[in-house]
Amino acid sequence: MAKVVILSGAGISAESGISTFRDSDGLWEHYDIKDICTAGCLETNRAMTVEFYDKRRLDLADKEPNKAHRVIAELKAKYKDEIAIITQNVDDLFEKAGIVHEDVVHLHGYLTKVECEKCGLVYDIGYKNTQDSYNGKCPTCGSEKIRPFIVMFGEAAPMYAKLNHEINDCELLVIIGTSGNVISVDILSSYVDKTILNNLEPSFAINDELYTQVLYKKATEAIDEIASDIEIFLEDRA
Ligand code: NAD
Ligand code: ZN
User: Which of 8, 106, 158, 231 has a 20 to 30 Å separation from 88 between CA atoms?
Assistant: First the structure.
């Protein structure tokens, strides 16, 4: 199991032009989060929910990874078994930076995938609208009940078990671009000896006194220092 865990949130993709929850602009502004991100919204508000994630999926097509994704991809290639990449993001920017999909733990789902509610098949539709892929029908059972492969607030998040598993064995936890509102990073950090926190600014949901090192700057500006700390840590314990 990995000794270094890199846990990221929306902030790491902000410089690639994907908006975070906080500085909501564009896409997010036209929707009320509770109508499109909460358990049950597929029953009560299906068309708008599917449309919202369709728009976000199409929006992803021309987005490029930034320096933070790329440096992390290089580290992962060099120290494959020592580093776990875990993200709250549903975008594919780590994958575009060269990390194989199976090596990125996506806690909240993955935007280019959809799921058949009838037979449970999860399949990748790239940057298409749900309706434009297999005529909006499941390629296995033909059902038209296709949902975004996204964990809504209040739904079970099966990949959290993987996060907890990795934290058990983690010696250096690196947190990049998350406000700590969805996942309590303070609690995670309490299990780990050495912790690095990188955000643009302090968050009400994070007590930064709990962290070994705190970097309030853009992820692309912090990443060289973070990478060097990770390398020194891993070389020292080798
Ligand atoms: P958040 O919006 O609550 O917080 C973003 C954090 O990133 C803030 O702490 C902010 O200081 C920091 N930040 C902003 N720009 C930064 C930069 N350039 N460099 C470093 N840090 C920066 O995001 P969250 O904590 O990830 O939680 C929001 C939820 O929204 C998650 O569950 C996630 O799945 C979802 N989400 C995902 C995406 C995506 O996939 N790219 C985008 C928006 C929201
Ligand atoms: Zn099906």
Answer: 231
Confidence at 160, pLDDT banded by 50, 70, 90: very high
pLDDT one-digit tens code per residue, 120-132: 999 999 999 999 9
The pairs formed by 190-197 with CB atoms below 8 angstroms and a separation of 24 or more are 191/167, 192/5, 192/167, 194/233, 196/172, 196/226, 196/229
Same domain for 115 and 8? no
Domain that holds residue 135: 19-62+109-150
Whether 176 and 229 share a structural domain: yes
- Burial letters 159-170, b for 16+ CB under 10 A, else e: beeebeebbeeb
DSSP three-state, residue 205: coil
Whether 184 and 228 map to the same domain: the answer is yes
Please tell me whether residues 83 and 197 are part of one structural domain.
Answer: yes
What stretches of 45-169 adopt beta strand conformation (E)? 83-87, 104-106, 109-116, 122-124, 146-150
At residue 122, what are phi and psi to the nearest 5 degrees?
-110, 125
Q: How many domains are contained in the chain?
A: 2
What does pTM read for this prediction? 0.96
